[in-house]
Amino acid sequence: MSSENKSVWNTLNKTEDWKIPAHIAIIMDGNGRWAKKRGMPRTFGHTQGAKVVEQILEDADALGVRYLTVYAFSTENWSRPAAEVKALMNLLRRYMKTSLAKCAKNNVRIRVIGDKSMLEKDLQEAIANLEKETASNTGISFQIAINYGGRDEIVRAVRRAAEAGLLNDPGKIDAELLDGCLDTAGIPDPDLLIRTCGEQRISNFLLWQIAYSEMYFTPKAWPEFDRDELIRAIDAYNHRERRYGGLGS
After folding, report:
1. Does 29 participate in catalysis according to the annotation?
2. What does the pLDDT read at residue 246?
3. pLDDT tens digits for 57-84?
């Protein structure tokens, strides 16, 4: 850790006024570009990126972050080359199989958001098992967005509401109703959204939930993202005033 961030890290641990975001969401961009710059296949970047996910999950948990959500595979990612999609799905399979013991040890709860019906049967079963086995864990809640798109989530939420007969009375349709039908029902909205690799857009991620999130964009590709950069993001968050549409102080 850099000397600059050691100071910030100590501040995070000692200053009562320091605000730790309860929920951090991350758009993990740049795996492929990072690998290409090093003369390696894109799949190498995804493998390295998966290692970073594990480390950042530990760091966020150590800081007291209660919820961490990462964008692993979007509804649009199916348009990538078939070999890359297959490699990503196999990487997810390995993660689901190897993470159970770690989750039990570290008291992590895992939830997968997105349209899981489009995934292959064995991956659906692995996800269901992991969610079931970690459901009672009381540590950090880790959400992995797989086959996820913000617009698709809202459409599926409206469909759930309609199937449950919740849309029969227009006067009772409100934000709370829809919120309860989203994939993230019961999870607070992100306080901080981080995107890596220099892009400054939200790419159809958590469209409903990030209405009032603070955003932090870093030029670092995801495989380069580390504890130092996480600290910088939280430091930036602490210098923002969240007004929620009001005038603030």
Report:
1. yes
2. 67
3. 999 999 999 999 999 999 999 999 999 9
Mark whether 169 is an active-site residue: no
In-domain check, residue 33: yes
Count of domains observed in the chain: 1
Catalytic residue among 10, 13, 17, 29: 29
Mean pLDDT of the chain: 92
Does any domain span residue 5? Answer: no
Residues 79, 81, 84, 89, CA torsion sign = positive
The answer to whether residue 157 sits within a structural domain is: no
CB 221 within 8 A of CB 48: no
What are the pLDDT digits (tens) for 172-218?
999 999 999 999 999 999 999 999 999 999 999 999 999 999 999 99
- CA–CA gap between residue 215 and residue 185 (Å, rounded): 22
50 domain residue, yes or no: yes
d(CA 29, CA 92): 17
Other residues' Cβ atoms within 10 Å of the Cβ of residue 102: 12
Catalytic-labelled residue, pool 77, 106, 137, 204: 77
What is the CATH classification number for the domain harbouring 74? 3.40.1180.10
Residue ranges of the alpha helices (H) in the chain? 3-14, 31-37, 42-63, 82-106, 121-134, 150-163, 175-179, 227-238
Print the domain residue range for 106: 19-148+188-237
Query: What is the tens place of the pLDDT at every residue in 3-58?
Result: 554 555 565 555 557 899 999 999 999 999 999 999 999 999 999 999 999 999 99
